[in-house]
Amino acid sequence: MSSHVTIQAPALVRDRLFIGGDMVESEADDLIEVISPATEEKIGSAPSSTPADVSRAVRAARAAFDDGPWPRMSPQERADALKPFTDYLRSRVPQIAQLITEEMGSPISFSQHLQAPIPVMLLDYFRGLATTFPFEEDRAGLTGPARILREPVGVVGQIVPWNAPLILTMVNLAPALVAGCTVVLKPAPETPLDAYLLAEAAMEAHLPPGVLNIVPADRPSSEALVRHPQVDKISFTGSSATGRRVAALCGEQFKRVTLECGGKSPAIILEDADLDSVVPALMPFAIMMSGQHCLAQTRILAHRSRYRQVVDAVSEAAAALTVGDPHDPATEVGPLVAERQRRRVEDYIASGRQEGATINLGGGRPSSQPKGWYVEPTVFADVDSRMRIAQDEIFGPVLVVIPFDDDTDAVRIANDSKYGLSGSVWSSDEDRAMRIARHIRTGSLTINGYRIEFAAPFGGYKESGIGREFGPEGLSSFLEYKTVNLPNATTH
Predict the structure, then answer these.
(1) What domains lie within the chain, and their CATH numbers?
(2) Closest CA to 56 of 209, 247, 206, 162
């Protein structure tokens, strides 16, 4: 059992991998250096797993699945076994929040209210679902009775990104474990440290060795995980470009795969919407985590009759956001995760200018932040849907406002995207908003607000991904279906 975690410098230095239930040495000489996005200084390190390390972790997960007790326990027994795992994380929510803010620059208020508690909520939800989910079902059938068994898919390789590291880990880790799978988790190199709290939770809960394995790694070792023949399924969250590569590699082996990829989500503001209430409700989800979120409502569609009003209201609200130190509870917009990410966002801002869009707000680096990878909240007006800034996922605090003429035009523009992950419709007429929502090709929408419903399926159309997470559908994605045809009753 590990010691209590405190967020001090020693806790930010890790020198082992978690494989087979133990902390073990990596075969790599290199370390992953974790750099603070706010100070640009090193705050910690973790071992960089080699392909051989990844293979060792897969073998441990394979042995735990093929020969260990975990997949042979009842769903309720697994849910019970995960309770101390959940309790360990629950007791450390403040430390988790602080650590994620250190790693990736999430404003501490966001980390405290979402980054840290949601993983615990997801564990609680899927543990509870174990008691009601139909892991077995009898059917009368057309030719005779059949029993449908839903069995764990096997060894899961899970690759998670840096922007909401523990949330996006637990979205798939929780249902995978409840289903009876064993997991090799590959956290992002920008945020490897919070994953070690999961290792400590697994040891606290005395999970069977190999049920959970954690191997921070760079891209070559990540590809080794995807390619490994003893991995039955890959769960990937990240960019659409990398998702395409993961899907291609899985296709070579007919390996099961779930992909949750990029987004360019539209927020459709109809002419009857009350801007005084709409804009304050929209802004937290338009520039949440400095726009570094696939769900961010960064493509704002405004009725032409009120276009300038919307541009001005959005710009005024964005200008009022507090940019600053992510450790300050007053901060609403923190730094981007890395210098390369800031360069990417600045390249898109330059592209928007070149294509003829107008910067109504921002466009540079905040003068108040001489250090750190900051970009000002930026609002583009006079945007055409064909521009790069309207089509590509920028992953920064950049909003584009696009005019539309009527409901049909709004639907056309909303669907004029290679993505289809999220969105919102804002109107005083909920029936009208619902009619529009039915025509948007996207995985989730909210009317007059924005929220994520963890008990309902979540996922994307088009290049936003394959498969669904959350809810019973998320648990189903880690199960294989087996039909056992039963003998027909003998008639005397």
Answers:
(1) 9-261+464-482 (3.40.605.10), 266-453 (3.40.309.10)
(2) 209
